[in-house]
Amino acid sequence: MAGRQRVDAWIRTPGHFDAVIDFDRAVRDPADPGRLLPARRAGDWLHLDPEGYRVLAEAVPERLFRHIS
């Protein structure tokens, strides 16, 4: 988990990418950042329930779909 957190911190640091969709931040448990929100898990602590996938969809900024000319 520590390795994943280091990689996530690097990805979130400005300057590496044009945009980042932070799915981890959208569905992690603030009380235990290494796991999914209990209310959004499907039962196995690995997969999301349907509402969890809706939360992921809402985490995608609409501006990423706008045409840039």
From TrEMBL:
Which SUPFAM superfamilies does this UniProt record tie to the protein? SGNH hydrolase
Quote the PANTHER family the UniProt record gives. Answer: GDSL FAMILY LIPASE, GDSL-LIKE LIPASE/ACYLHYDROLASE, PUTATIVE (AFU_ORTHOLOGUE AFUA_2G00820)-RELATED
| Name of this chain's protein | GDSL-like Lipase/Acylhydrolase
